[in-house]
Specification:
single chain; 367 residues; alpha+beta; Jelly Rolls; eight-stranded mixed sheet; five-stranded mixed sheet; 10 helices; binds ligand L37FFZMX; binds 2-oxoglutaric acid; binds fe (ii) ion
Length: 367
């Protein structure tokens, strides 16, 4: 689900050199849109972003609460070495610091899933104040030959670091998935014996999207990454210590700035997880804002089903005697539905909802 009305896509302009800009050019200046009518607030009191320690015996309960209320949380106690996270940020900064023609060698062409370029699923009237690079996490070595065709030390170092990050995140993804299953009420035995649960855990696919948000001379006129929900199951976001990620809290609607405590990963739930949990866990509307002083890097690691796996509500998430609230869909099908929904200002999840005695299927109102 994305909040903005359908708008003509921005002209396929190449990235402008954002770092040296003294003003925000017209192409990047965002008029006050629906998102901007909500105030941005600090993450304190009832707006404190939930923190979950994955090693805590009460983790499943904490995850259930956060997933129902926020669709997002900060994850600690995950065991990913700080050395790996620091290495990733260093390598991503180095990648984006390469001269423009070197990055352009890996430019993502229309219809391609990977490469240097704009977020593939956001079609917006204005450009965003960021640079991006998307690739399947398992294909880092093949992908980055496009940037460093001759291989060499820089290439090898980049790939080693990204691969180690991928292994850590993939293992953590499987572990957190079981915590989510526990949060739905499954016992350890049921999780171990469940055929669907096993299939989902074993086939989880990972995509990485590297984001650089350069510091901006007029941050209030620019947008780092426009408001969106992620489409997959869930996303781990490794972010630099510079805050910028915001989550939309409802009633009254307000943007909450997610803190960036050292070592914490942000977990954001996606639309297919809302569908998988029959609407019990919610995907989170989020965006990234920019600031005047510092560049910010974020490295989201998207986990979702393989392209040919149809995702339907888990039996354990459908209340006894009720029908599943959504029809089954594959990830590529869902992307198509979402694209169509965007053009008609509809909610993609609502389009997949199955009528059932008029009860709430768990789709939140469009913002
Ligand atoms: C796995 C994916 C999720 C994503 C589309 C993609 O194929 C690769 C990039 C991801 C991203 C990152 C920025 C925001 C977003 C909406 C977009 O346009 O590209 C997400 C996509 C998503 O979650 O649907
Ligand atoms: O920069 C961030 O923290 C968020 C990135 C994000 O939401 C995305 O790439 O999908
Ligand atoms: Fe996102």
């Amino acid at each position: 689900m994305m909040p903005s009305p359908p708008t003509p896509p921005a002209a396929a302009a190449p990235y402008v050199e954002l770092r040296s800009a003294e003003r925000v050019p017209d192409t990047h200046a965002w008029p006050a849109g629906p998102d901007d009518h909500h105030p941005s607030v600090e993450a304190v009191g009832r707006d404190a972003v939930p923190v979950v320690d994955v090693g805590d015996p009460g983790a499943a309960r904490a995850v259930a609460r956060a997933a129902e209320e926020w669709g997002a949380f900060l994850l600690v106690g995950h065991g990913v070495p700080a050395r790996v996270t620091a290495g990733v940020e260093e390598q991503v900064a180095r990648l984006f610091a390469l001269p423009a023609p070197e990055k352009a060698r890996a430019g993502r062409r229309p219809g391609e899933a990977s490469g240097y370029g704009y977020p593939p699923a956001l079609h917006l009237p204005k450009r965003m104040w960021s640079e991006g690079y998307t690739f399947p996490a398992a294909a880092v070595r093949a992908e980055f030959r496009r940037v460093w065709p001759d291989g060499g030390d820089e290439y090898l170092r980049f790939c080693d670091v990204m691969e180690e990050h991928h292994w850590e995140m993939r293992a953590l993804g499987g572990r957190l998935l079981d915590v989510f299953f526990g949060a739905l009420g499954l016992t350890a035995d049921q999780i171990a014996a469940g055929e669907t649960e096993r299939k989902i855990r074993e086939t989880l696919m990972a995509t990485m999207h590297l984001n650089l948000y350069p510091r901006c001379p007029e941050p209030e006129r620019a947008m780092g990454l426009a408001a969106h929900t992620d489409s997959g199951f869930f996303t781990f976001i490794t972010q630099s210590p510079v805050p910028g990620l915001q989550l939309l809290r409802r009633g009254p609607d307000r943007w909450v700035t997610v803190p960036a405590p050292p070592g914490a990963l942000v977990v954001v739930l996606g639309d297919l997880f809302q569908l998988l949990t029959n609407g019990r866990f919610r995907s989170a509307l989020h965006r990234a804002v920019v600031n005047r002083e510092q560049d910010r890097i974020s490295v989201p690691y998207f986990l979702g089903p393989p392209a040919d796996l149809a995702v339907a509500p888990l039996a354990s998430a459908v209340p006894p005697g009720r029908k599943a609230a959504f029809r089954a869909v594959t990830w590529p099908e869902y992307m198509g539905v979402r694209e169509k929904a965007l053009r008609t200002d509809a909610s993609a999840l609502a389009m997949l909802q199955v009528e059932d005695e008029g009860e709430d299927g768990g789709v939140p109102p469009k913002s």
